[in-house]
Amino acid sequence: MDLMEAIKARRSVRKMKTAPLPPGAMEAIIEAGRLAPSWKNSQCWQLVVVSDPVVKAKLAEAIIPPTNRALEALLTAPITLAVCAETGKTGFHNGVLATDKGEFWYMFDTALMVENMCLVAASLGLGSVIIGLYDHKKIAGILNLPQGFVSVCLLPIGFPDDGESPPRTQRKPLTEFVSRNSFGVK
Hints:
By secondary structure, the protein is α+β, with helices and mostly antiparallel strands. The chain has six helices and six strands, in the order ααβααβββαβαβ.
């Protein structure tokens, strides 16, 4: 599958089979994340690969609200990638914050990583869903994150359950968000 096909195929899949990933799939997905760009090549990310059902159940208890539709994917997907970041590493130049986005540039860097992983998963016929609404302190405790590291999101990955093929959501036409040379100039 070429890149544009993978972009068009990627969906937030909330119902997944428990079947294991094909050989080499997890490695290919993580490698795609590893190759993502980051601020000054800081690569602030850390991944925790969660496959233990007991750990996944603990993670599920931290999801907000408990009716979150992605909860099922977290529990049934064969793996969930817990995407974490080292704070104080990205967005800095010579030890000083270099952007008005503050210390939170790690969100941008990890988002690039996550998108790469989602696209490779889609290219392999796998589903993923990005979960970000949860008790981050509780997740940090479950994952034993050391001081200076934060949880960013959870990414369950697996085969979509039979019949789970969410339709593509409507996207704005280019004319609604593209300007030329100055904001609002169409």
